[in-house]
Amino acid sequence: MYEIKPQYVKISPFRFVQPYEHTYKTNVKARWQGKAFIDAMSDEFRAYTREYYQQAILDGKITINQRKVNPQYILSDHDLIEHKVVRVEPPILDIPIKIVEEDDDYVIVSKPPSMIVHTGGGYHYNCLVALLYFEWKPIELFVLHRLDRLTSGLLLLSKNKKIAQQFHDANSKNVVKKIYLARVHGNFPENITETDRPLYCVSMKDAIFAACSHEEAKEKQAKEAKTLLKKISYDEFTDSSLIECSLITGKTHQIRVHLSDLGYPILNDIGYGGKFVGNKIINKYFPDLVDRKIQQKEVLQQNELNVVQLEDLDIISKDILKQNFAKKNQQVQQLPQINQQQDDAEIIVKKVQLEQNEGIIIQQKQFQNDKLAKKYEQLDEPQEVLQDCLAGKKEWDYSNHPLEIYLHSWKYTHQGRLFECDPPYWM
Description:
The structure is a single chain. By secondary structure, the protein is α+β, with helices and mostly antiparallel strands. It is 30% helix and 24% strand. Strand 1 (8-11) and strand 2 form a beta hairpin. Helix 1 (37-44) packs across helix 2 (50-59), helix 8 (296-310) packs antiparallel against helix 10 and helix 9 (318-334) runs antiparallel to helix 10 (340-377).
């Protein structure tokens, strides 16, 4: 399922993944056939610039059928494209995934915002499914429905394909009941209880959708969509309303688009008419965090420091020494009182040895870490990583970049069974 076991690096408020080598593989699709290699790469894959693809093809980082070719090579059926990179995944908020419920068939979790559900969009190991696999249980899980990256809340997964197929069949027939919570801008009218305006794609590249009239649906290739709405409360201070949204259908961005189309966008959903109000979730989970930007150099340096800290440096580890000392101390307490004086002397010797060994470990680790720190201080711009990484950034700013929207998956009902998670902190 996964090629490597990832090494995670945590620099509050983010969780990063240690850079790793990766090869993307894809067969040429029908619509690419007959196109120049460079044109297909720049048109179909927007993670990199055309200039990057041009140079990568010339350098042999991107190949056809494991061969180096000219950028103007004409693609044909059965061609295999391989792209070798050093991958640096975008960071996510370092907020734990809450296990709401588990049984023989299901795993029910509450997803934090900023986290993508499964591999895609530059994320592979820094996604919910991978984190569950490596940090909870190494079992295969089947995702039963989608949640946008910035959306939080209830997510259903199954442990077998049969349950997954049953859920997908029911969901396609719109018989799964889905309730979300949203905080929207303005005083939402209580007399608006539903909307069924069809949804169509404005830009597949940017994943932007819009609503249209039923008369325009055929022309715009729009899909049927229906959302039930119920106003729960209005907050005068923030000029925002809390809305309960029930999905009758389940189209991409349906709630976000419908609320925006009604003139009451989700308060902080800048993609659909909301405004950036700051990442309040940072204050919730990281109250003492100093506002600053995280440099990519820090991630690389922190990664190397973590590796050093995991090594034993040819010295018995502190934990093992403590275990041995505790074991010896327990044995001492069990000896007859007549040997107490001799045993006390042995304990003193052990304590001295322990302190000496701990000092050696600390000194050697500090020496190694100082060397690494100096090494990375000289790397003003680690271009060998930046050129090839999907994240493609020298720094990450958590004070001016949206990490959440006020949309929360709350309750699902399937085959008479209710699944529910806690409401969001902004409720």
